[in-house]
Every structure is written in structure tokens, then in C-alpha cells.
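Reader question, answered in our methods column.
A reader sent in the components of a multi-part assembly and asked whether the whole thing could be modeled at once rather than chain by chain. We filled in our standard form and ran it. Here is what they sent:
COMPLEX SIZE: two components
ENTRIES:
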Amino acid sequence: MAALLPLAAAAVLTGLAVAALPPLPFAAPGTPYDRSIPQAAADFALFSSAAKVIPAGSSVAAATLPRNAAADVHLFRTGVALLPGRELVPMSAAEAGTAVDYLVVAGTRPALPAWDLVLETPRGSVWRRRR
Amino acid sequence: LISAGTVWLAALALLPVAGAIPMSHPAFRRLSPAGRVAIAGGVGGVLVATAMTLCAVLGWRWSLLSIGAAAAALGLVARICVPRQTPLTPTLSRRERGQRAVVVASRVVIACAIGAAFVSAASSSATSADLVLLWGPKAQQFAAARTIDAAYLGNPALEYMNTAYPPLVTNLYALASMLAGRFSWGGAMLTFPILLLALAAALPSALELRRLPRASLPWCALAVAVIASAGAKLQVAGNGDMALLFFEATSLALLLGPARLEPAMQFLAGLLFAGAATAKVEGLPFTAAAGALFLAANRRNIRALPAAVRLWTPPAFSLGLWFFYGAERHVFAGYRGFGPVFQIFWERFGSVLAAIGHALGDVHRALPFTLPLAVFLLVAPKTPSGWMPAGVGAALTLFLLFNYLHGPDPTEWIGWSAGRVLLALPLFLTLSSASRALREEGESA
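And here is the structure of the entire assembly that came back:
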């Protein structure tokens, strides 16, 4: 009898775990956050694409449009994770947007006359400072 | 063609090889083969991660040679330190096979729970937000720098990465990244079901040694199901929570099992304590509470001082090395508090409890917490030793409450932390109940 109690509880909890799964078969996720944190998934995908066009050693700033300071912070942190070997500059820093080599913009495509568009995705765009 | 992610995971599969050095001691041959491999993986993780911290302290650049040599040296020291002894517990006989249906059903439930954890991790349903915020970036930076990068940790813009956070998980992720050539986000996510599988292999062995058939399996099924259901919902894939739970539950099971009075098993529990203490910050109060309650519960049968040395020397060395690194490089000085120790905001008590209740209620209506509690109330332990895990759970809960009442407004913090930190509680309650059931079952066998 004592053995049946934990077994029954385990069966109930396993049932809950199975019920919470995505329907099978599911498509392989494009990012680690596709089914857990969709907003983070979009930023993850943007920076994964940006990593292919931003060379190592470059300085990078990341901003949201329309501007949102809290979202900028999250974007910066995602950039730190996905752009290793580049110098990420927080948007709160004075040199962000003026002295960096690349700018990653999440959201609306901006008009940046002094920058060249190097990548555009559904989530945002990547710009290189014109020399 | 072998992908980088496969190599990344394969690198972690080498950890049992490192752990085999101390686990080759004859005292551990009474653990089941599957249990020995799983526990050797945990011990290997501790040895390799500590070796990497030691290399960083000594200024040695990480390479397979430097890490391998340091880990082998630590493994040999650990092997030498395993107390020589004759087993105190007689070799256990086989039980009657009357419970075969329960054993089979338990195995099916365990397999389904681990399968569910695997699918939730692989489908990205369970990924921790902290994986991209701190665990992953730290690991890939350390791998690129071939050491624990003090400049990176000291960067004020990266303070959100919790500079003083202990290094076991990031070190092991860094090692895998070095071998694979890059960090694997998918590999990190899959550590959740892999560690759950390791826990399922380790627990029956720690609780029963080689005795067959496994009377502990229904309890192991409950422990695994708690983590599979709540862990996926709480999104622990890729962060340090699953490693912490593995080290906590396995060490407690060893200290509950039939060989708990044997010095060698206490030392093995101490090695796993080192894993808990260096996996996450909560591992330190766990190690203190579990060791103290074990000594108190078994005070009539053991000599307290030698047992305390066996239990606490490994975590003191491993975590002490990390604190030494932080202080010597001027990166951090121990764990940071929130202000004066005795500054408690008692007026928050009601709102904190309500927020915790809300956070737990979001996890399958709190069933992963309340079902083990109900089972515990029905099968409460009868011995001081059996109460030990429940006592550790109570101590950790008080520690968490203290933190919530002590620091800045914790409302948001409770929302994303309470469920994960309290996940240890139903696990420990399950171990307490298991100890009574196994003791009664053993007496009747």
C-alpha cells in the first residue's frame, strides 16, 4: 500500500508533464526560446543572424524602435550572449550610437543616412557605420 | 558528420571517467553499476570543475592537458582520502519478488517522465531565461579565454551576470565548448533530461545499494516526476537548477541509505556536497543544513568530528577555492548580502507568502508541491534520520523566506525564483517518506 501512494502521485505528475508537451510531431525549434519565451526567441534569431555579418573585434550597440529603455537592456544582454568576441556597448553609454562600428535595431527599420544596411530580418536590421 | 552539439554533449559524458578514480574504491562496489556510473558522473563533474578553478587560481591556461592533470591529481587525492573500512552493513539479501508489478509500473512512469523532460527540453518549451543571460555567455567567454575571465566578470556592464555565482556549471559548459569549438545552446538545454536520467539511476542505488528488487523505485518515480513536471513548467533547462537538484538529492539519499554510517559513504556524500555548493548559491545553505542535521540525527552512532570533516571538507575546498579566486583577483569577496543582516521587513510577511503561493500555483496548480506533501503526511518518517531531508527542506525554505524579507522589494523576484528554489522541498519530502517505507520494508523482508 505504501508503495502505491508515491506511484499514483508520480503517475499523476507524469501525466501533467506529458499533457503540457507540444503536440507531436513538432518542428525543430529555430532558437532555444521558440516555445518558452517568444519575445526572447525573436531577439535570439536577430542576433544569431547578426553574428554572421558582424566580424569579431567590432564594437556593437543594440536598440529598439520605438525606443524602450527596458527592452534596450534586454537586447544588450542577448547581444552579449550571441555576439561573443565583439564589444557590446550599452545604449545608456555615451558612445553608443555615435562611435560603434555596428548598430543592431530591433523593431521598425530606421532611416540612418550615415550607416549602411547590411542585414534585414523580420525582427530588425543590422547597420554598419559608413567610413 | 558529427555536429558540434553532439561533441558538446559527448564531452560531458566523459565526466564519469574522471569520477571513476575515487569511485574505484572497493567501498563503492556495493552500489549498483548504473548508480555507480551516475554518481561517478557527479563526482567527475566536481573534480573537473574544481580542477578548472584551480587552474584559474594558479594562472594555468585551460587545456585538455592542464585540466586533465589537475582533475586526475584531485581524483587521486580524493581516492586516497576515502576512508579504509570493512562494510558496517552486511551484504543485503534479495527480497521476495512479490512487488514485481509495482517495480515494472515504477520503471514505466520513470521512463515516461524522463521522456517528457526530454521532449520539453528538445522542443524549447523548458528553456531557462538565465541560459542566454548568464550561464551561456559566461561559459563561452571562459572557453574563449581558456580560463575564468576576471576582466569579464569585473565588467560593470555585466554585473547582472551575478559575478560571485559559483563556477561548477559554467566551468563544465566551458570545457564542453572548448572541445566542441563553440557553445551549444541545444546541448545546454538537454542537460535537463540527461541529469534527470542520472538522478533516476543514482537514487535507487544510494537508497538501497544493490538490493533487489528495487523497493525504492516508486519513490524514485515520484522524485523524477516532480522534477519532470515542475522543472519543465518552471523552465529550468540549461540553467544550474537541475545540477543542484542532482547533487542535493543524491547526497541526501546516500546519507539516508543503509550505508549512511560508513565513513566512505559519508565522504562520497561530501564530494556531492561540493557539487551542490558550487552549482548554485543555495547549495551553500543546503550543505550546511544537510551536514548538521545528519550529524544530529545520527549522533549516537557516529563520531561527530571525523564525520563532519568527511562531509564538509570537499565543499569547503571547492567553494573556498572559488572565493579565494574572487578575492585574489579583486572581482568579488564572498556572497553579497542585501544590507544589515538583521534588517527584516516583517510587514512584508503576508504579501511574500501570498506571492510564493501564487508562484507555486502557476505550476500545474501547485500539484508537484502538494502531492509529495500529502504523501509525506501519510507516510511520515519515524526516525530522526528519516526526518533529516524534511528538516533540510524546512531550513532551505526558512533561508528563502529570510532572503525575501531581508532584501529589496521581492515581488518580481519571487515570481521567477520561488518555484525553482522550492522545487527541492517536494524532492526532500519524498526522500523522507521513502526512508520510512524502505526501513519498514527492510524489517519485514
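What stands out: Chain A has a mean pLDDT of 93. The longest strand of chain A covers residues 59-65.
Send us your own complexes using the same form.
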